[in-house]
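As a warm-up, study this chain.
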Amino acid sequence: MIEIIETKVTYTEADTPSHRHVNIIITSGETSYLWGVGGLPLEGDLQPILDSRESELWAAASAAGNIVPAEVTAKREARQFMVDNPNAKLLIELGIADLESAIEGRSAGDETLLLKTLAVAVRYLYEQAGLK
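Now compare it with the structure written out below.
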């Protein structure tokens, strides 16, 4: 799997756009690598282009060995969790008293979301603190 994390346009000396460069995270199984890919067209969706080159990019990225730091992985997981579970944001933004009320008056579904949100938040904080 390839995830584009940043896209840049590269310019010639005459200040004319020449091509795009992307920084990606490429994953196969449990290991993820950071990698940069240049010389990409200025127009169009880059994901299919990258996907068609996945085996080549995987070989290059894994040979370079630039493993994605755990804190980056935790941040990506947390971001995806928030996209997949928009109600989790409501829990996170509650004040202490309101959070206690939500916990005390929770339903089974609320409890599941609360526990998942807590697990993602703790994992994120754990990685950010470098405790692994």
